[in-house]
Amino acid sequence: MIKYILIAASVIGAGAMGYVGERFMRPTPSAPSGQAVTQELMFKMPLGKFTMQIMQSRKVLHLMFDMDVFVMGEVSFHEINGAVGRARLRDATVSAIAELAETDQSLAQPIAEETRKAELAAQIVRKLYVNFPAVRTARLNSFYSNITLRE
């Protein structure tokens, strides 16, 4: 009788250990079965040069940007890369730069250091992200600013 109780307890104990320890011993799949893991790529989209004049109270701020944006994902890139999408992205970039020029007085000073260019590009991307969530980052290739007095 004791022999049968020990065998039953061993079987129940081994079953419980197998049930609990299975997830530690078995490798877990990294992707759901039947689906391949796809890594999203960043696509470079050169926007070109922007030349702007922003009228302020007693002066005119002249700005010239040369900028590239990076879009996450092939589908999003193809949606934006058409003539209409690229025009919308350029218009949104111009409005973001104009809004920054009105609020940020340091935009009038020349930017020579790369950290300031990266900070300015990040501010532009934050404003673009509202309407274009696929835009992840941007790079300012060149930036020039000049102030002239208003007549």
TrEMBL record:
<protein>
    <recommendedName>
        <fullName>Flagellar protein FliL</fullName>
    </recommendedName>
</protein>
